[in-house]
Amino acid sequence: MHLRLESFSTEVFFEIFEYLSSVDLFRGFFGLNGCLQRILNMYPLRLNLQQICRSDLDFLCHHIQPKQIISILLSEETMPDQVNIFLKYFPNFEHQFICLQSVNFIKTENCISQLPQCVSSLSFEKCLGQLWLENKIGDILIHQAKVLTHLNIQDERLIESINIELPLLKQLIIDSPCLIDRLHQIIQCLKASIISLKVSIRNQKDYYFPSKFEKLCQSLMYLKHLNITFASGIEISFHLLEQSLNHLPRLTHLTIEATGTLDLLDGVRWEEFLRRRGLIKFYFKFSLSLNLVWNQDQYSLLEPFRSSFWLKEKHWYVACYKNEWGNKCPLIFSVPYIVPHSIAYLNEIYPPLSTASSNVEKQLFYDTNINHLECYFSRLDSRQTYIFTKVKSLRLINRCSPFNLNMLTSTVDLGRVRILDISSVDHISTSELRDLLEHTPCLYHLTMRQQNQSLILPSHIRSLHLKRSLSQDSINFTNIDELRCELLHVVQLEIKVQTQELMIKIIERFDQLESIIFQWSGYLSEKYTSSEWFQQNTRRLHENNFTCRRGSERERGEPRQQIGCGYVPPKVFIYLSISKHDPKRPALDKDRSSLHSLLTIFQRGWNNLFHRN
Q1: What is the domain count for the chain?
Q2: How confident is the model over 293-317, as pLDDT tens digits?
Q3: Containing domain of residue 87, as a range?
Q4: Does residue 153 lie in a domain region?
Q5: Which of 401, 411, 421, 577 can pair with 79 through a Cys bridge, CB separation 3.0 to 4.6 Å?
Q6: Domain assignment of residue 450, yes or no
Q7: In what order do the strands lie in the sheet containing 546-552?
Q8: pLDDT tens string 514-537
């Protein structure tokens, strides 16, 4: 008996679609048959355009039905001018996306001015524009004022945009540090019954800070979820928190990061407070102020957190460690929530001392939360008890020790790693690198110093960042053709160049590339980074099938490097996103490889499920 794909219910297809990217979804199912097409058009789609290439964006814009989109994430982090390209496909955006509920802008230089009235959730994360963009965001908030329920602002400059009434607002996130006075002004201005607030309080010398914080809490009487971070220069006491939080009668979820007095670290007082308030969730990260003396050891500090209330009733675990650079002030935090997603692994200080039993310790510190790991080979221990099982991004650091794959595999599960950086590994041979790559079947992005000409990268590596080697500053004309043959499967490339001619050569010769980031050290005239210049000087870009943007190291979060008393010349980054294909082409070659392609897409969906769990 043969099971036909169409025999699955719509609910089953919707469940499958949850684990597929928008690109895979439409390439796999668009145009297969009328039944599947109707199901596809009915699916409420969350359109995530972050880390997408120009070809895939063009393809999606030709095939999606605007009325099926319920959320959009737009990002120009790697694809310049994405917002404007999207608007060219949908010039009547406000009237086309009639079911849209949420819009998220990440590192964009532009935004969509006129949104549908149904959009109730807005997020602006690390937006790159200047004053005109801030004004435009203010206009957007005015336009959505009567319907907006969720707002996320992650840029200090954009906080000034919040100067209007948002009466239906329920969730507010302000990740950029904000003065207590300004935050209070915003809350008063909104005239909303906010139930969820995430905010960071900026350091300021203010004698009246305690009374101002208490007054802020008094204005948030409907609050149920509070996530608050106090700058390290603000000294917080348990008494201040207790007195202020008593003004939040509906509070059920509390997350606090603060530096303060001895009573802030007192587990007995926190237990009494939590029993009285009946909080459902409580996460914290507390450290002692530098001007205070601490004489207890870690075990004494954690002992109050070992009571039956913490371990049996709530199953809340607490960890503690002292700063490895000699700071005597302890730090205590709840786990796994406050365990950082990114850590530099040193076996002598990790895992920290905690209240968790040994069988729970593995789950808290190795099986959850750690997405990015930095491994120092000289500090690894072959007697490692547990393995990091869910690391997606791995950076290896090895300046003097020989490379040891066995020790690495006893520390981290390489089968889940998608991003690998070996640019800080000094001693690794071609055969050792080949063995390492064979152990990373899910690897997508690789960062290395210089491509070894005797090594052809595996086909699953689609993104490559080549940093300069010790012997040469950049790729040159003599080895560019060999390099192209070794990187046939790579579609995203970041590379350092020193001449305009070399940029042109790479664009022309590497015709499989869809995304290129050129790194340039020193002065480079803006005329050599304009769309017009690339269009006039390259055959491949002559038809204006690309977008480009000039960026800086500050934008990428890279520190200025210093040599002696002077600085290295600033870096310039040129981002190119190139459309390779006809965006209207069929999703699959139905006559030749539809089954194979569909199975491949299902495999990617299965891998997504595997990585989520």
Answers
A1: 1
A2: 667 778 888 999 999 999 999 999 9
A3: 71-169
A4: yes
A5: 577
A6: no
A7: 342-345, 372-376, 393-398, 419-425, 445-448, 463-466, 492-496, 515-521, 571-578, 546-552
A8: 999 998 877 788 888 888 999 999
